[in-house]
């Protein structure tokens, strides 16, 4: 079976979640990857490590910014001409906005938040994470064409494959697709992207104020982690909105989530319940977060964090 | 400004999720239903835009009769009229199709909804609707200002945000901080009773997916507590037991 995998680039580099999507695709068929915008041939060829055989590259610079309509048009057109019956992508802010359009254009069934390989013993059934991670639906995709958006960190990232062949591909771009004009963009430079991170260190109202976030950042730096926060923390502008984790914020699925001074309200837990391990540091032994944790420390964050950071530095040195 | 706001009717964020009939049906026992929190942001922004520069806000829900209290709440918050497409929202394609049909008859300048529902978390409906209507779509939208036939919006991208200038009409999937949730006041609640709520029948019954069965995750094991004066033990557990560092 031939599978097309749309890969997202971040400053010309293939995102980790897109590598997971390639690995997912390779487990069900022969993968052709599709990359849009500028990237080096070497970088694209490295999609082979995760299981892609070839990469189609539409290098037009107008596709460097992730604009929804042009992406939907180009992906749909390549999906149609590639002969693939399945399109796989990572679930992301961009993919969410794009795949609905592609599904309608392609007449495809669409499942998002897919957390496991399909079961093809009776039709084509995938596991979709629903109710913000509180349950799973076994979703049957009934159309011949199928689109799967894969939940981040849900698929084991396979490496060690060969290099993929890279083919420049041209799709004629219609000016009418570029109706939206980007005025400005702001991006956190050099940091680990929260939705992609393996480890997240997150702080809540218990940290008392933005001036105390140095402790969280230090710990994150030691661990190579991304930083997150609870909703009130971003509501009060202590931290930027894109760090807000939970039911109404970013849903994370890291291998390790460290929550500091966060009470563990059900809406916060909904955003972290796919984490493999959870560590909770809170001065209140009755904080509900401990019930959802694997490891817990009852203590004052202002005392525990510096000590923990030192101990981690020693252990990781 | 003629705005259509699409709302979902979903379990409250604190609900315990359970299934019945051999895990094939959502168990509504004891569950409180609300306007989807993201949809609620979209609605709040629509009402603000109307209050600032006039126009009309229509709310739309695809759902069976049980969703009417949720729709009335949206009217109490400030929508002027409501449409309910009388059907169970079987999948995102089906819902998008109903919304697109209603939209075709309304000549809307803006179609707003939440970035995703909090039951199926698909986040696909806004793109589908826009594609069906041949409009542009944006999501997740965190701010929205209108000047004449142009809108300035900001959209969250992973790790940051982007400001865009776009022409009306378009479809937007919204999230905070686009507006603050509005709590209906007594006057709103009274007037909601008499605002029009039109019920229409679905136009097309095709779907693209079907749920075969639901599953709940395995319960979490007990937490291991570590003394605050012995953080080395936590480090050792993370390294040797969990093997995550
Ligand atoms: C519809 C809806 C959606 C929501 N969505 C989200 C969401 O997506 N994400 C989210 O996070 N919230 C969300 N909320 C809010 C949520 O209900 C909680 O209010 C919020 O998560 C609490 O944040 P917190 O834990 O930082 O603060 P608090 O609940 O105030 O908890 C602070 C914690 O810090 C501890 N603490 C205090 N001082 C110290 C110290 N020195 N050392 C260690 N610990 C200390 C306290 O014991 C306490 O447990 C939502 C609410 C609603 C109604």
Please give a structural write-up.
The complex is a heterodimer of chains A (317) and B (245). Chain A has helices spanning 16-28, 41-45, 68-82, 93-106, 214-223, 231-235, 266-269, 301-316, and strands at residues 2-7, 9-10, 13-14, 30-36, 52-58, 86-90, 109-114, 125-130, 135-141, 146-150, 165-168, 181-187, 199-203, 226-229, 256-260, 277-282, 295-298. With 317 residues, chain A is α/β, with parallel strands linked by helices. Chain A has two domains: 2-178, Rossmann fold (3-Layer(aba) Sandwich); 194-316, TPP-binding domain (Rossmann fold, 3-Layer(aba) Sandwich). Chain A has a seven-stranded parallel beta sheet with strand order 7-10-6-1-4-5-11, sandwiched between helices. A five-stranded parallel beta sheet of chain A has the order 14-13-15-16-17. Chain A has a two-stranded antiparallel sheet with strand order 2-3. In chain A, helix 5 (214-223) links the parallel strand 13 and strand 14 (226-229). The longest helix of chain A is centred in the C-terminal third of the chain and has 16 residues, at 301-316. The N and C termini of chain A lie far apart (46 Å). The mean pLDDT of chain A is 94. Chain B is an alpha/beta fold and 245 residues long. Helix content of chain B is 27%, strand content 33%. Chain B is built from six helices and 15 strands. Chain B has helices at 37-53, 68-77, 92-104, 125-133, 186-192, 231-241, and strands spanning 2-6, 9-11, 19-20, 25-26, 33-35, 56-63, 81-86, 110-114, 136-147, 150-157, 160-167, 170-174, 197-200, 209-215, 224-226. In chain B, strands 11-10-9-12-8-1-6-7-13 form a nine-stranded mixed beta sheet, with helices on both faces. In chain B, strands 2-5 form a two-stranded antiparallel sheet. A two-stranded antiparallel ribbon of chain B has the order 3-4. In chain B, helix 2 packs across helix 5 and helix 3 (92-104) crosses helix 4. The termini of chain B are far apart. In chain B, 48% of the residues are buried. Classes of the chains: A alpha/beta (317), B alpha/beta (245). At the A-B interface, helix 3, helix 4, strand 7, strand 8 and strand 9 of A face helix 3, helix 4, strand 9, strand 10 and strand 11 of B. Flavin-adenine dinucleotide (FAD) binds at residues 204-206, 230-233, 246-249, 261-263, 265, 267-268, 271, 282-284, 287, 300-302 of chain A. Flavin-adenine dinucleotide binds at residues 204-206, 230-233, 246-249, 261-263, 265, 267-268, 271, 282-284, 287, 300-302 of chain A.
């Amino acid at each position: 079976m031939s599978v097309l995998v749309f890969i997202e680039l971040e400053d010309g580099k293939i995102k980790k979640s897109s590598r997971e999507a390639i690995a997912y695709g390779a487990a069900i068929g022969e993968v052709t990857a599709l990359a849009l915008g500028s990237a080096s041939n070497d970088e694209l060829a490295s999609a082979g490590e995760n299981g892609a055989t070839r990469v189609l590259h539409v290098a037009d610079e107008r596709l460097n910014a992730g604009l929804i309509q042009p992406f939907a048009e180009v992906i749909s057109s390549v999906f149609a001409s590639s002969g693939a019956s399945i399109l796989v992508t990572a679930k992301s802010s961009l993919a969410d906005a794009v795949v609905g359009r592609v599904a309608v254009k392609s007449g495809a069934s669409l499942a998002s938040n897919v957390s496991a390989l399909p079961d093809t013993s009776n039709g084509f059934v995938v596991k979709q994470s629903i109710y913000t991670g509180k349950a799973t639906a076994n979703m049957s995709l009934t159309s011949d064409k199928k689109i799967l958006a894969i939940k981040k960190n849900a698929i084991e990232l396979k490496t060690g494959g060969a290099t993929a062949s890279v083919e420049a591909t041209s799709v004629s771009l219609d000016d009418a697709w570029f109706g939206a004009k980007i005025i400005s963009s702001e991006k956190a430079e050099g940091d680990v992207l929260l939705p992609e991170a393996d480890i997240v260190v997150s702080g809540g109202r218990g940290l008392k104020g933005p001036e105390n976030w140095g402790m969280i950042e230090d710990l994150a730096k030691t661990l190579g982690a991304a930083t997150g926060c609870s909703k009130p923390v971003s509501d009060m502008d202590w931290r930027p909105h894109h760090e807000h984790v939970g039911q109404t914020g970013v849903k994370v699925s890291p291998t390790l989530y460290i929550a500091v001074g966060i009470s563990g309200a059900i809406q916060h837990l909904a955003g972290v319940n796919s984490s493999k391990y959870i560590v909770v540091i809170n001065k209140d032994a009755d904080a509900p977060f401990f019930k959802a944790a694997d490891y817990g420390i009852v203590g004052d964050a202002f005392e525990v964090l510096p000590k923990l950071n030192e101990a981690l530095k020693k252990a990781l040195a | 400004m003629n705005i259509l706001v699409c709302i979902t009717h979903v379990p409250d964020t604190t609900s315990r999720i359970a299934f019945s009939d051999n895990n094939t049906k959502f168990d509504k026992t004891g569950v409180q239903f609300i306007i989807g929190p993201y949809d609620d942001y979209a609605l709040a922004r629509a009402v603000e835009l109307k209050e600032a520069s006039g126009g009309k806000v229509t709310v739309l829900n695809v759902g069976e009769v049980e969703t009417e209290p949720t729709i009335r709440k949206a009217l109490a918050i400030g929508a002027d009229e409501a449409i309910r497409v009388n059907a169970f929202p079987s999948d995102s394609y089906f819902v998008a199709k109903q919304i697109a049909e209603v939209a075709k008859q309304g000549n809307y300048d803006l179609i707003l909804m939440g970035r995703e529902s909090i039951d199926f978390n698909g986040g696909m409906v806004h793109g589908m609707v826009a594609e069906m209507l041949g409009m542009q779509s944006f999501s997740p939208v965190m701010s929205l200002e209108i000047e004449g036939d142009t809108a300035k919006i900001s959209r969250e991208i992973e790790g940051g945000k982007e400001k865009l200038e776009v022409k009306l009409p378009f479809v937007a999937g919204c999230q905070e901080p686009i507006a603050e949730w509005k709590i209906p006041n007594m006057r709103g609640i009274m007037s909601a009773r008499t605002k029009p709520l039109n019920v229409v029948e679905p136009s097309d019954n095709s779907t693209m997916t079907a749920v075969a069965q639901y599953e709940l995750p395995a319960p979490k094991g007990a937490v291991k507590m570590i003394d605050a004066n012995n953080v080395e033990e936590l480090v050792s557990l993370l390294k040797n037991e969990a093997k995550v560092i």
